[in-house]
Amino acid sequence: MNLPDLKEARKRTNKEILVKTNDYIVKENLKELGLGKKYYIKTYGCQMNVHDSENIKAILEDMSFEETDKFEDADLILLNTCAIRENAHNKVFGFLGRVKHLKEKKPHIISGICGCMAQEENVVQKIKDKYKWVDIIFGTHNIYNLPNILFNSMTRKEQEIEVFSIEGDVLENLPVKRDSKYKAWVNIMYGCDKFCTYCIVPYTRGKQRSRMPAYIIEEVKKLMQDGYKEVTLLGQNVNAYGKDLNIDYKMGDLLRDVAKTGIPRIRFMTSHPWDFDDDMIKVISEYKNIMPYIHLPLQSGSDRILKLMGRRYTKDKYLKLYDKLKRSIPGVAITTDIIVGFPGETEEDFEDTLEVVRKCQYDSAFTFIFSPREGTPAALMNDDVTKEEKDKRLYRLNELVNEYANINNQKYLGKKVKVLIEGIGEKGNLFGYTETMKLVNVDGDKSYIGEIVDVQITDIKTWSLDGKIVK
Ligand code: 5AD
Ligand code: SF4
User: Fold this and answer.
1) Cα distance between the two ends of the chain
2) Whole-number pLDDT of residue 427
């Protein structure tokens, strides 16, 4: 049994990051462990988790398990969890109630928890104490060992817990079963060293570890051969890519090399304003296949709160970067993340945030109420803003954000845009995204799926655009 340890998870040493190319092995006797059995995996949280689930699915299929999207039919149920806010926790514990109910009827079911919550001491303790029927818990650094974890669980009676609280290495040989045939997630780095005071990620995902460029380029080339049209380069902090490698190669260099592969669409997320350098801006503006869409988390518009958050930029610095991006990258869409109700946030601080939103007029924003995460410095700060006040601020912020999102969308009316058609939506229409990440519902038949087509925008809805294909 390996239990999580937040103190260990916080440590950053000079230990060399190893690139491991053969850690993932399925022993011969485990290759048919899942024969005739079905798995169901439910994924919470960010794209990193979505992509981890794609790895987990492939691992399970290497062991002959078969995927089902019907939870009731599963022999193995895994919840790939998110720890970023309390409500993510609540959703998981809510779903566990359903799993328990099903297990009472079908006791042979194996149930498991993985992802960021598995890295949290308090969560694992709670599951050990009160959810004894959960069979396996494994952490974000333990995915490669899933075959053995499952085998142990199936052959022993007690809960199987394997959670390493380590800085982590880079594993290069995990298999992947991608959800889409046209869009792919490509990890370029793992972990985070920024330690923003509210954030649990540096504890759950380890230290910043960039993948070597050659592996990334090779993956993108392979995806192109397989017909993929779009890659999203993933990391908690992609702008800091390469800083931990002992070669002189940064995010601008990587973007340039990925762009040169010729893959039609390149996206990247998430950017921290701190490391956004001029070379990146230059490359984004030079290459047509790097999409003019940037997610640039603000978190707060108050210098005082930004300092308490440990964000290392000021409102002015953020606005200067924002202006530079808008000036240098024609038509760029910029979205953001904002937290309201951080400990000590006054009405004045909040007004500063609104002011930045008014200036930036974001295409859209993800807005959150501060949620204390155990083990982070902000959780120990005096959380003195009342629940009512937090709710009110979130409401006021959302009103403003929606106003600008709508203004930005209106600009698309009558315009011709390029859309990568991804599939058929609920109403039988095609859907896809513009270069600037706007969801578009398009009339047309399914022969267009997987193609980038010219679409004329005919109508603007609150959360999407409508359009028709033009030749
Ligand atoms: N409380 C509220 N929001 C948070 N985020 C990260 N940690 C917290 C927290 N403790 C938000 C940030 C981040 C996004 C992914 O989630 O805005 O950018
Ligand atoms: Fe969390 Fe800050 Fe790292 Fe983003 S940059 S993952 S908010 S610590």
Assistant:
1) 61
2) 84
Determine the distance separating the centroid of ligand 2 and the alpha carbon of 299, expressed in angstroms. Answer: 10
Q: What is the DSSP letter of 440?
A: E
Residues 150, 33 contacting (CB under 8 angstroms): yes
Ligand 1 neighbourhood includes 84 CB (under 6 angstroms): yes
DSSP state for residue 273 in the 8-state scheme: G
Which ligand sits closest to the CA of 189? Answer: 2
pLDDT digits (tens, 9 = 90+) for 72-92: 999 999 999 999 999 999 999
pLDDT(312) > 80 = yes
Question: pLDDT (tens digit, 9 = 90+) per residue, 398-444?
Answer: 999 999 999 999 999 999 999 999 999 888 899 999 999 999 999 98
* DSSP characters over 242-294: TTTSSSS--HHHHHHHHHHTT-SEEEEE---GGG--HHHHHHHHH-TTB-SEE
Fold of 416-469: OB fold (Dihydrolipoamide Acetyltransferase, E2P) (2.40.50)
Reported pTM: 0.96
In whole angstroms, how large is the CA radius of gyration of the chain?
23
Ligand nearest to the CA of 373: 1
Cβ(111)–Cβ(104) below 8 Å: no
310, pLDDT greater than 90: yes
Report residue 302: phi and psi, to 5°: -100, 125
85 lines ligand 1 (CB under 6 A): yes
Q: Which CATH fold would you assign to the domain 6-162? A: Rossmann fold (3.40.50)
